[in-house]
Each structure stands twice: as C-alpha cells, then as structure tokens.
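In this section we walk through a basic example: taking a raw amino acid sequence and producing a predicted 3D structure, encoded as discrete structure tokens. The instruction is simple. Fold the sequence below.
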Amino acid sequence: MAKRRKKKGGIGKFVILLFLIGVIASLSVLFRKEIVDTLRPFLGRLDLVQERKEIFLYFSDRDGEYLIGEKRKIVRKGEIKEEAKDIIDELIKGPKGKLIPTLPARTKCLNFKLNEKGVAIVNFDKALSKDHPGGSSAEILTAYSVVNSLTQNFPQIKQVQFLIEGKPVETIAGHLSLRQPLASKPDLIKSSD
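The resulting token sequence is shown next.
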C-alpha cells in the first residue's frame, strides 16, 4: 500500500508541475510585449533582443539580365556604416531563393566608409575580381547589385566607389569602368513575378 501512495503523489506533483508550466507559458504569450519592454535594457546589454530592419538585396535573375530584390532582415544598429556593411556581407552570402549570386562566394568586404557627399566607399579583397566569372553582363550585375542594394536601402547613399585592397580599381573583370563612383541604376531592377 505504501508504494501505491508514492505513485499517486508523484503523478499529482507531475500534473501540478505541467499545469504551472502551462500557466507560465500562457502568461508569457499574453504579456510578451510588456515583459520584453520591461527587460529590454537588461536583455539589450546581453544582445538577446535585437531589433531588426527589413532590407532588399538585389541578385541576378536566372537569365543574367536584371536584378531582382530579395527581402531580408538585418539587425538594426543605428549607424548607416554598420548596417551597410551588413548588407554587403549578406550580398556575399548570396540569395536564399532561386536567384543567382552576384558576388563571388569568397569575396570579403574589408571595410566600408561613407563620406559627407553621400559616396559609399566599399573596400573589397582581391577575390572580387580574381574569382569573378567574367562577362560584361555579369560584371554589370555585380557592380549594380552592390550599388542598388546600398542606394535603395539608404537614401543617404547617393553613389558607390569600389576599392580592391584599399586601392581604386579600374574595373572588376574588364568591362565596366569603376574609375568614378557609380549612382543607382533602377532600370536594371525587375520586379519578381
């Protein structure tokens, strides 16, 4: 008989525990916003709650003729320089859908600067040109994928100057002159159907 009482007591405690977990889960769902707002300063310091910003990255369509925007979210950092560098890093990672990457996978953005005239200066490593597949269309889409992704997401960025290893670059693969900063080219953007 003593054994049976222990089993019943154990089951009762288990049921009460499950009930309490259910109540806590329900309250946390109902009052999630209030809880997060209350804990935001503490959690922010631990980087547990990060506000996100929706952006568009421009990748090549299947035919290699146009750029198509892909929605993505990045962490809102409050500084254009940091968020813009994140956009470049996301472009390098490539598309998540059926679009075609525009930057070689091994490319690295070494640094990013924005001057007072609204010119973004993007410094890439050698892989941008060394690993580029070549061809005039591919080169145009590579350059304007970067330019349009930056200028369409940040109105403060008017043009983009490309550097490789800290030096001005004539071209990525021999077809498009990069001696001067490039402005946005929205006619290359095609809406996804």
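Looking at the output, two observations stand out. The first strand starts at residue 52 and ends at 60. The beta strands are 52-60, 67-75, 109-114, 119-124, 159-164, 167-168, 182-183. In the next section we compare this with other chains.
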